[in-house]
# Entry
Amino acid sequence: MDLSVNNLAGEIPKEIGSLVGQLSLNFSMNLLTRNIPDNIGNKELMESLDLSMNRLNGEIPP
# Structure
Protein backbone atom coordinates (compact mmCIF):
# COMPACT_ATOMS: atom_id res chain seq x y z
CA MET A 1 0.00 0.00 0.00
CA ASP A 2 1.58 3.26 -1.10
CA LEU A 3 0.32 6.36 0.70
CA SER A 4 3.46 8.41 0.17
CA VAL A 5 3.30 12.14 -0.61
CA ASN A 6 -0.40 12.46 0.31
CA ASN A 7 -0.17 15.23 2.92
CA LEU A 8 -1.35 12.78 5.57
CA ALA A 9 -1.14 14.49 8.94
CA GLY A 10 -1.47 13.44 12.55
CA GLU A 11 -1.03 10.11 14.23
CA ILE A 12 -0.75 6.73 12.49
CA PRO A 13 -3.92 4.83 13.50
CA LYS A 14 -3.32 1.66 15.55
CA GLU A 15 -5.70 -0.15 13.19
CA ILE A 16 -2.95 -0.11 10.54
CA GLY A 17 -1.35 -2.99 12.44
CA SER A 18 -4.38 -5.18 11.82
CA LEU A 19 -4.30 -4.91 8.02
CA VAL A 20 -4.12 -8.39 6.53
CA GLY A 21 -2.26 -9.23 3.35
CA GLN A 22 -0.15 -6.07 3.09
CA LEU A 23 3.45 -6.98 2.30
CA SER A 24 4.55 -3.38 1.91
CA LEU A 25 3.44 -0.14 3.57
CA ASN A 26 4.76 3.22 2.40
CA PHE A 27 3.84 6.33 4.40
CA SER A 28 6.91 8.35 3.41
CA MET A 29 6.96 12.11 2.81
CA ASN A 30 3.84 13.00 4.80
CA LEU A 31 3.23 15.01 7.96
CA LEU A 32 2.75 12.11 10.36
CA THR A 33 3.51 12.85 14.02
CA ARG A 34 3.66 11.20 17.43
CA ASN A 35 4.82 7.65 18.08
CA ILE A 36 4.89 4.70 15.72
CA PRO A 37 2.15 2.24 16.83
CA ASP A 38 3.58 -0.80 18.63
CA ASN A 39 1.60 -3.24 16.52
CA ILE A 40 2.81 -1.94 13.15
CA GLY A 41 5.81 -4.27 13.31
CA ASN A 42 3.81 -7.38 14.22
CA LYS A 43 3.39 -8.53 10.64
CA GLU A 44 5.20 -11.80 10.04
CA LEU A 45 5.06 -11.38 6.26
CA MET A 46 5.94 -7.68 6.13
CA GLU A 47 8.59 -7.14 3.46
CA SER A 48 8.96 -3.38 3.74
CA LEU A 49 7.79 -0.46 5.83
CA ASP A 50 8.75 3.10 4.85
CA LEU A 51 8.00 5.85 7.37
CA SER A 52 10.78 8.18 6.25
CA MET A 53 10.47 11.96 6.01
CA ASN A 54 7.75 12.36 8.63
CA ARG A 55 7.82 13.83 12.14
CA LEU A 56 7.54 10.60 14.11
CA ASN A 57 8.93 10.12 17.63
CA GLY A 58 9.90 7.21 19.79
CA GLU A 59 11.38 3.83 19.08
CA ILE A 60 10.84 1.63 16.06
CA PRO A 61 8.82 -1.43 17.17
CA PRO A 62 10.48 -4.85 16.73
